[in-house]
Amino acid sequence: MGTFKAIRIEKADKGTRAELSSFDDSELMDGDVTVRVEWSTLNYKDGLALTGKSPVVRRFPMIPGIDLSGTVEQSVNPAWKPGDRVILNGWGLGETHLGAYAQKARVRGDWLVRLPDAISARDAMAIGTAGYTAMLCVMALERHGLTPQSGPVVVTGAAGGVGSVAVTILARLGYHVIASTGRPAEADYLRHLGAAEIIDRKELQGPAKPLDRERWAGGIDSVGSTTLANVLAMTRGGGAVAACGLAGGLDLPTSVAPFILRGVCLLGINSVTCPIAHRETAWRRLASDLDFGKLHEMTKEIAFDEIIAHGSKILAGEVRGRIVVKIP
């Protein structure tokens, strides 16, 4: 038995409390693979867990962090052996199962994906759940039949983690990308990632009409609420929107009009319990379809002891692109 460094979330008199601490091996949860965590990342959901702003954490104590990359140390799962390089996204990590902001994780082997040879452990976390979700959104739009010839695709929350990767992938695939952001100062950043047009998020706020002027063939939305309602109302007939986030709220104040009068499809993206086969496809696609030069440019590295402070920053919209964390 031994101890390892981790961020620990405990219940407090008012809400929860996150702090750097030590965990004992005996506190690890059941699992058939033990991973030495080398890199993690910071997503919007991690910010919610770290700050307690939403009941993301459902057991205490909890180690937050929904993403990890690292090396298998021990395994009784026949699919994995010591030395294997792995990625884990979701599956309740950092919510119901002790998560990634630690030097060690014990997990189920059937949650793991093999790290593609073309992607480093650091780059895997620069992608993280945000980038992997963006790829799932692109794949869902493709399955619907969307192509670059179908017309423009809008990306909401474009300067955030999901949005930044989505803009980059779509642009590289040849789509005309319309990036929606509430941060005008990020216009040059988004154009560099490949956005052809920038619109102010105010154009997608406020009560949505049942139907509005048709502006795009599809969309990727990480905001929800009235933003998603407006995106749907402005989607061309036969188009589709992939919804993967709730930064603007859980509600969806829309009508059936886009669905029954234009045949628009709303595609729900669940990255947490996505089947392994889809995950493996998404990571192969990321290895081939993502511009890693631009990924590096949109990525900031922080130290382990900076995670908690950055949890508040990502909720406040003060984080651009992606953040990676080197686990000491």
Explain what the structure shows.
The structure is a single chain. With 328 residues, the protein is of the alpha/beta class. The chain has two domains: 3-115 and 298-326, Quinone Oxidoreductase, Chain A, domain 1, CATH 3.90.180; 130-268, NAD(P)-binding Rossmann-like Domain (Rossmann fold), CATH 3.40.50. It has nine helices and 15 strands. Strands 3, 4, 5, 6, 7, 14 and 15 form a seven-stranded mixed beta sheet that branches. A six-stranded parallel beta sheet has the order 10-9-8-11-12-13, sandwiched between helices. The chain has a two-stranded antiparallel ribbon with strand order 1-2. Strand 9 (177-181), helix 4 and strand 10 (197-200) form a beta-alpha-beta unit. Helix 2 (121-144) packs across helix 3 and helix 2 packs across helix 7 (276-289). The chain starts with a strand and ends with a strand.
Extract low-pLDDT stretches: none
State the name of the first-level CATH class of the largest domain.
Alpha Beta
The number of helical segments is 9
Determine the CATH superfamily of the largest domain: Medium-chain alcohol dehydrogenases, catalytic domain
| Alpha-carbon Rg, integer | 20 Å
Portion in strands? 25-35%
CATH topology of the largest domain: Quinone Oxidoreductase, Chain A, domain 1
Number of separate domains: 2
For the secondary structure, the number of strands is: 15
Structural class: alpha/beta
Q: What is the N-to-C order of secondary-structure elements (H for helix, E for strand)?
A: EEEHEEEEHEHEHEEHEHEHHEHE
